[in-house]
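TEACHING EXERCISE
Course module: macromolecular assemblies
Task: Read the component lines below, then compare them to the predicted structure of the full complex.
Student: A.B.
Group: 4
Components provided:
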Amino acid sequence: MSAPAAIYLDHAATAPLAPGVGSAMWRVLDGADANPSSAHAPGRAAAAAIDAAAEALAALIGAPPEALVWTSGATESINLALKGAVGFAGGGHVVSVVTEHHATLDTLDVLERGGTRVTRLGVDGEGRIDLEALDAAIADEATLVSVMHVNNETGVIQDIPAIGALCAARGVPLHVDAAQSLGRERIDVAAMNIALLSMSAHKIGGPKGIGALYVRRRPRLGLAAQIHGGGQQGGLRSGTLAGHQIAGFGAAADHARAVREAEQPRLAALRDRLAQRLSAIDGVTRNGSGAHVAAPFLNVSVAGVHGDALLTGLTEGVPALAVASGAACSAAKGQSSYVLRAMGRSPREAGASVRFSLGAATDVAAVDAAAARFAEEVARLRALASAA
Ligand SMILES: Cc1ncc(COP(=O)(O)O)c(C=O)c1O
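Instructor-supplied answer key:
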């Protein structure tokens, strides 16, 4: 039995395939699909397809294509960036933020257990870091700074141009987790002084299981490889390249570049419409607001309802809403959001929160239907609670 249709508002978890992605992947799979490291003509054709995808992705971030390392996703990119930079430097001091994705936080824990010093900066009520505190931490012999661009739970945007300028002034490389900003926010690695940038295809309508790490070439940034073997990708990440996955990522990058300028204001307007309708409900407050939240994101806390009951009611009601409470991975662990708690929300507020993340298929009808269903569910749960 196929799953009933849901109003899909969970693009931060993963986005449906963008136009042209499936066919780009199939063209590779259905062709000779030789090993791109092979010297013969089919091998060279496979390598050329990978080069074309690298051009497309590089154009999205203002980088030279040869500065990209293909990985299995943002998680692996982040591991390579952090462990690779620390490994090359032989230890040191990494400065990061408490609201990072677990791919960063857990990697930092591993590095710390191995003797690396780690500073985790807090955030204010809007989810942003204090630049003076960051600068003080960098001045304390930092070897690497790692800050996410757009938060995956709230959509809060960190001021990467300002952070990059601080890092450049002190000569410390900056790693940015761009899993949620790629193709959505403008990224220019040179102008923003970004030395390492982690990316993932499936957040922009590409396939799952493929990502990339941008590694600055000039001045050259040293990284210790984390996966060893055949020496592909200059020895930085061994393993035969998955041409079909990479072609899919390239097609998604091309599509994102073509539509970004028009999509960003369209999604912001839809998000604002949703926010307006939800804030008319008594006891609904927004987590992260205004210009510092990326266009597709809306995160709200709801007073007077149980978070699990709300999520179940929304995801299993009719029409079903495909929404999330915090990050899918934290939700799986049954914990209230550490991101919202770091922003000063009470455990209760953090527990009864819902993330809406909009995307290509979202329209006015979807937003209005979602708002109406949300209002109905909150009223139903409150009536049940007061009757109990
Ligand atoms: C901010 C952020 N970083 C990293 C990741 C991990 O990405 P991937 O699924 O490509 O490993 C995600 C995905 O949830 C994310 O949202």
